[in-house]
Amino acid sequence: MCASQCEDGRCGAAPATRPMNTRSMNISWFNRRPRPPVSGLLAASMTPFKGASIDENAFSALVADLIEAGVDGIVTAGLAGEGSTLSEAERERLVALAVEASGGRCPVVAASGSNATGQTIAWSLAARRAGADALLITVPYYNRPSQHGILLHFTAIAEVVDLPILVHDMPDRTGVALDPQTISKLAGVNGIAGFVGKPATLAAVNGRTTVLGADDGDVPAAHFTGCGGGLSLLANLLPRTVRLLHFACGRGDLAQARAVQNRLQPLLDAARGEPEPTLVKAALSCLREDFDGRPRLPLIRPSPDSLLQIELLLAELASFEATLPQALAASRGERRP
Question: What do you get for the CA distance between the two ends of the chain, in Å?
Answer without folding.
Answer: 42
